[in-house]
Amino acid sequence: MLKIGIVGATGYTGEELVKILSRHSGVEVLSLSAIIDKPTKISEVFPSLAGKCDIICKELDIEEVCGLSDLVFLALPHTVSMQFAPKFLKEKKRVIDLSADYRLPAKVYKEWYAKEHMDKAGLDSAVYGLPEVYRKDIKKADLIANPGCYPTSIILAGLPLVKEGVVELDDIIADSKSGVTGAGRKAAIPLIFSEVNENLKAYKIDTHQHKPEISQELSKAAGKGLDVVFTPHLIPMNRGILSTLYFKLKKKMTAKDIAKLYKRQYKNEPFVKISKGLPQIKDVVNTNYCEIGVSVSGNRAIIVSCIDNLLKGAAGQAVQNMNIMCGFKEAEGLIS
Amino acid sequence: MLKIGIVGATGYTGEELVKILSRHSGVEVLSLSAIIDKPTKISEVFPSLAGKCDIICKELDIEEVCGLSDLVFLALPHTVSMQFAPKFLKEKKRVIDLSADYRLPAKVYKEWYAKEHMDKAGLDSAVYGLPEVYRKDIKKADLIANPGCYPTSIILAGLPLVKEGVVELDDIIADSKSGVTGAGRKAAIPLIFSEVNENLKAYKIDTHQHKPEISQELSKAAGKGLDVVFTPHLIPMNRGILSTLYFKLKKKMTAKDIAKLYKRQYKNEPFVKISKGLPQIKDVVNTNYCEIGVSVSGNRAIIVSCIDNLLKGAAGQAVQNMNIMCGFKEAEGLIS
Amino acid sequence: MLKIGIVGATGYTGEELVKILSRHSGVEVLSLSAIIDKPTKISEVFPSLAGKCDIICKELDIEEVCGLSDLVFLALPHTVSMQFAPKFLKEKKRVIDLSADYRLPAKVYKEWYAKEHMDKAGLDSAVYGLPEVYRKDIKKADLIANPGCYPTSIILAGLPLVKEGVVELDDIIADSKSGVTGAGRKAAIPLIFSEVNENLKAYKIDTHQHKPEISQELSKAAGKGLDVVFTPHLIPMNRGILSTLYFKLKKKMTAKDIAKLYKRQYKNEPFVKISKGLPQIKDVVNTNYCEIGVSVSGNRAIIVSCIDNLLKGAAGQAVQNMNIMCGFKEAEGLIS
Amino acid sequence: MLKIGIVGATGYTGEELVKILSRHSGVEVLSLSAIIDKPTKISEVFPSLAGKCDIICKELDIEEVCGLSDLVFLALPHTVSMQFAPKFLKEKKRVIDLSADYRLPAKVYKEWYAKEHMDKAGLDSAVYGLPEVYRKDIKKADLIANPGCYPTSIILAGLPLVKEGVVELDDIIADSKSGVTGAGRKAAIPLIFSEVNENLKAYKIDTHQHKPEISQELSKAAGKGLDVVFTPHLIPMNRGILSTLYFKLKKKMTAKDIAKLYKRQYKNEPFVKISKGLPQIKDVVNTNYCEIGVSVSGNRAIIVSCIDNLLKGAAGQAVQNMNIMCGFKEAEGLIS
């Protein structure tokens, strides 16, 4: 059995990691840590874990975690992960980081996260954990930069069109709608129920920290630089991201033509589905699937993708990466 | 006192009409009709109207309504309004129709509503009731085609840019998010709570019946034909529409430059506000305001507008039109 | 025009006070204060107040407030109000306190709010602002202790039965369900959307600080001491309290008999309604009404009451008290 | 492998049955039927089942179902199940009925469901499927009457106190709050989002069809007849029932004393948990647990229980019964 440690176990993604790994046949979770008043059973922090995991969650002690883990998940805020990842790598532990710390070059990182990167070596070795693009590299990786939730929903939705070169690269728009767990489990007035419920807003238009990650990956797929217009919106629901992408087609294509591209691109992917009609959030919530629907209006392709932001957008994809790294069945633990 | 009749009083827009008109100093609501089992006090149909209106709502009797009304609001489904409007006009009643029946030329109407238009004469005389554009004509009108909720939110958000000719007309995208009351008060599985709550979807991409209305009005503002890409989304909240519009700028402009255009265009408008930052639905719910926020990303202008779909998007705008037609203060009854 | 000051204007009840008073024909709001970074238009703090009030909200300066006010509303947390009320009373300002500070005898207050009372004189002179019981005293009062939201919903629902002596006094149960605004506008993890939405819980069973207030007022009505069993629950909605009360009848009574008692008790009350069937929250939200439904099961009376916790449960009732104190029409400003 | 058929597969409980059984190691679902336009993959009816079950759902053909099933789940409306159950029993299939048709004596059934019972023989042989009470009988049963959602939450919460004889039997109150899926997946105006959201109501006070089932089972536990006062409420959330029960204690007991009774009663139960504090819906949603919290106020015990109405309140409990009937591990398939 592969021994697992989770650092940052008391957030929403931590909860999901424990839930998934506790049903995984090839691993055992032996170490849970977080900033916590006193050692507490994780099933008391999250009673929904009853019968699944009773391990005690305690303050982080790197040495202890190393003793109990072959592989460590870091479910930490950005700028924090890069302080711990090197310590685990040094002890020959494989690391899957769910923060943004290893997704961007140091220079870009500093621009968008307002902090000098503290682990350039790690950054050089890190693999961007999007299996649909980097499966080969993930197999051999010791450090995974697990993708952001918005980027996962947008990159998978845009990849086939930019890769095939059938759309204008200077004219890509991503209008995304996210549930509230995307903001994490923290106390802030804009997140309290009576401010979010019966409300709806756009925020950080074209200044959201996920933007460079999106443009970077779609640029790589296109083989040349491109810049996506990205508008995130906050929706009064707990889970899920729906992204609506707008592309300008270079030549006339039907929805059927486009669907064909998508089916070809993803035909061997266990967690990408092309919808017959349009996908809905409730079709993917509590699953690791990204579901994509395609349509055409005049010379525009309109692509809609849905994911569960805590699963394919975070914990689920992290475990998918672990499965690839460690030679497990890729879907192990991910279909409940 | 102006005598008012409301036909279709038991829907959500009917409820709002009664609420607004009951606080209006210059009118008295004397007739309420709807498809209803037996004559019933409207304050029993909608207990929230207690203390505001106790009139009895009964089955439609055109003669009776005419006897009790100088002006009639039709809060009816499309294809139904055009059967009744002519009868009221014939009796010299002024009519404000909240359906889509008088918003489009007969030919376009038939394409999108799959029905031959039954009142071409009315259609010729009808004025599109968007005060920010047609105030002069509204003053003299006998028949008002009250705009749709999506179109109101999109046309007001797009007008200044297309009118000033600073954006490409072949590259306009409107991504709209609507609360559930927009679908009306009808029994259908896709509308039940457990299907809509914790869910989110795009629907009728580029085939929504409000699309021609949007393109028609923005074309008029531009002085030449244009076609908007329109994607509606259903959001788990009761009220409100947030539309996010994407335009390609012909020449470099800052958000400040654009805000200036908007402030100039709407400087005398009592119900359009330009936000300092970005508007939110909760800022406009239960008000007749359209609030607009502007931003720029590269060569794109991104405009966000918020309205209450039942007020500025329906009943509130209808009363604003009545106020203009009848010489009342334009905001009378509309600021509670 | 009566000059009004509001202290604590940036909370939910402050927002509602401004909304109501801005439509009141006999008053003008001249002073708004709160703990706030810099002087800010209240219509920027709450854009929903656009067109209603543009006064600037600033840090509290008691002298300044006194100069601008004949009557002051205190929308402050308990234990804070009692520090300011005496200062306003000393300057001959009438005070309506929305906190719990003047609702209980000093001894009981200390037990339940864990703080020595700091204004015994004020406490002696304060009148409990429940118009349905204390209208006469309210007329002459200088200091009003505005009732809590739970107590208003429970006292009005229980009063007729205990007053008439038809129920056992040692067997009264109040099971209350409240929306989230009842907890105020503060940052705390248990209040964030993703913790409250799709969730439901009972809390502070029989230890909630509103319990003594409820028992005290029903005891007065009964003419002898009684103790209510009170269980509050948190519901995933913004506004409203529904309380379900259970009483044991001393002798057989029908729902009709009981309804008669309630109608007699409240026949002259402008803001209490006896439902034909059972009341719902949506019937009273955004109104100042308390709606009550009565039913019988065997030897038990089951009474259901609904209020808007921010209106009849707070700001609306406070203005109703002001109207009584100052000789305005009791409903002035309260029916929008 | 045990062969399974599900009749009524397109409702919410049908969806949950497929989800649970598809992860069960000892069964294979071979037949799905429902009232459906044309044969359709269940994973198209419920895309959330992708990767779990791809069987085609078709119109009911009893012979075909019998050919493909050893055990049949009936997820049908009451009055419908009793028309089909005998046909499956006749073919020696074991049947688990999720409707109310086999829970009550014919006479009581007729009173509450307004229909003459059509399968008295089945009724005589049926076992009430509450494992915590009837495990022994369930083992040997061919027909299970799976308990209602409200009854499960109330009976489990009340059982220890009435069984131990420590409470007055003429003074039991159950105030229950249910999510909307409890009403099933049907089109009706009172169930549409804009009527339920931001609303809350009590309904069918003491006339709800689950009342006799609750009183019957608690009477059996008490060893003498008792009648529970039962008030259901509709809550704006998808899933979960929280019941708050009020009992009068015969003699003084502390919460600790009571907790001891509950722990003893349920010490070997895999799916009943006694909370340290008070349970919340989010602790049990998507699980088969019933979580119970106990407290005391004066001479009253106040018991709060939480379940997922679609799992422990329906499909989960049905599979728990199947596991007992067929000798599987009782939790098999039920901990995801």
General description of the model:
Four copies of one chain form a homotetramer. Chain A contains 13 helices and 15 strands. By secondary structure, chain A is α/β, with parallel strands linked by helices. Chain A has two domains: 2-146 and 314-326, Rossmann fold (3-Layer(aba) Sandwich), CATH 3.40.50; 150-307, Dihydrodipicolinate Reductase, domain 2 (2-Layer Sandwich), CATH 3.30.360. In chain A, α7 (131-140) links the parallel β7 and β8. The longest helix of chain A is centred in the middle third of the chain and has 16 residues, at 149-164. The first copy, chain A, starts with a strand and ends in a 10-residue tail after the last helix. Chains A and B meet through β9, β10, β11, β12 and β14 of A and β9, β10, β11, β12 and β14 of B.
Distance between the termini of chain A: 20 Å
The SS-based structural class of chain A is alpha/beta
Query: Taking strands numbered 1, 2, ... along the chain, how are they ordered across the largest sheet of chain A?
Result: 3-4-2-1-5-6-8-7
Radius of gyration of chain A: 19 Å
Give the overall average pLDDT of chain A: 97
Task: Name the quaternary structure.
Answer: homotetramer
Overall strand count of chain A: 15
CATH superfamily of the largest domain in chain A, by name, is: NAD(P)-binding Rossmann-like Domain
Q: Which descriptor suits the 3D outline of chain A?
A: globular
Q: How many domains, in number, for the residues of chain A?
A: 2
Q: Which range best describes the helical content of chain A: under 10%, 10-25%, 25-40%, 40-55%, 55-70% or over 70%?
A: 25-40%
**Biggest interface pair, residues each?**
A-B, 42 and 42 residues
**Sheet of most strands of chain A:** 8 strands, mixed
CATH topology of the largest domain in chain A: Rossmann fold
> Low-confidence spans of chain A: pLDDT under 50, at least 5 residues?
none
